[in-house]
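Quick one, probably user error.
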């Protein structure tokens, strides 16, 4: 008499398990959740001209264009860079900031770098949209030729001190140019403005920074920094999302591809007077 009763309980358990499996299978994907919410939250570095400063810049235009491609409204989440890229990925992509905000759905301006990818198992780094590099701009009336850094001898050079360009210039040729460097500038755009205004003979910084101020001005030349330690091919920057956000990453990659092929990426850079370089 107990067999039918036991069978009935087993059937109920199987039915419950099947219902749970169906519910789990019906869970919304990360992209579907964003579509339900209607917004894409994009992390943007504060004080990174020409990519983002006071709500404007190249990365703002890219974030708007990607959100539009995904049929979502854009919600910008500006933040200050932490000690390392690993900190930024933790705070803005996979866990959230210790101050109580974030994470974002997507972070822009992430180096698309294999060592960083290998060291970041909780994020997906993808969709490179620009190739950055370190360059030197010079006043052609004061420095008509620059076969090597030795030509800078005795000339004042503007460079942001806390930057890759700053570290490279401070250590160049065993510190030969240290005394002539002007390192008070917070970023390369300010160094470029010092050059434009005649305060120095040359300025070092990121290509995007110097071009945003000097590109197209025939008084100045902008060239790769002529030293072997400077990465002449530069590095690519792209996007990052949580590792499990596979469908979001796929959609963003398609959007970036379309923006590149349709000329929208080049236009976004041109609005800040920067030449778009293929990653």
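Nope, works fine. Designed sequence:
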């Amino acid at each position: 008499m107990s067999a039918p009763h036991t069978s009935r309980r087993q059937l109920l358990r199987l039915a419950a398990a099947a219902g749970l499996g169906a519910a789990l299978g019906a869970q919304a994907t990360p992209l579907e959740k964003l579509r339900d919410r209607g917004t894409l939250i994009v992390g943007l570095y504060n004080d990174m001209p020409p990519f983002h400063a006071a709500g404007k810049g190249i990365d703002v235009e890219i974030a708007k264009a990607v959100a539009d491609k995904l049929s979502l409204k854009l919600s910008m989440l500006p933040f200050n860079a932490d000690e390392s890229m690993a900190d930024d990925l933790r705070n803005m992509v996979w866990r959230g900031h210790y101050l109580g905000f974030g994470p974002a759905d997507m972070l822009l301006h992430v180096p698309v770098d294999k060592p960083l990818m290998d060291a970041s198992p909780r994020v997906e780094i993808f969709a490179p949209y620009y190739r950055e590099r370190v360059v030197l701009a010079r006043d052609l009336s004061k420095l008509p030729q620059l076969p090597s850094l030795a030509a800078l001898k005795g000339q004042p050079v503007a460079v942001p001190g806390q930057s890759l360009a700053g570290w490279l210039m401070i250590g160049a040729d065993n510190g030969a140019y240290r005394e002539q460097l002007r390192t008070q500038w917070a970023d390369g755009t300010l160094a470029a403005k010092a050059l434009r205004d005649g305060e120095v003979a040359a300025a070092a910084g990121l290509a995007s920074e110097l071009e945003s101020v000097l590109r197209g001005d025939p008084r100045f030349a902008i060239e790769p920094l002529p030293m072997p330690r400077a990465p002449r091919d530069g590095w690519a920057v792209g996007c990052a999302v949580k590792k499990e956000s596979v469908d979001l990453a796929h959609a963003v990659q398609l959007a970036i591809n379309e923006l590149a092929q349709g000329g929208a990426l080049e236009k976004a850079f041109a609005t800040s007077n920067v030449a778009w370089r293929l990653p």
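Residues 91 and 98 are 7 Å apart (CA to CA).
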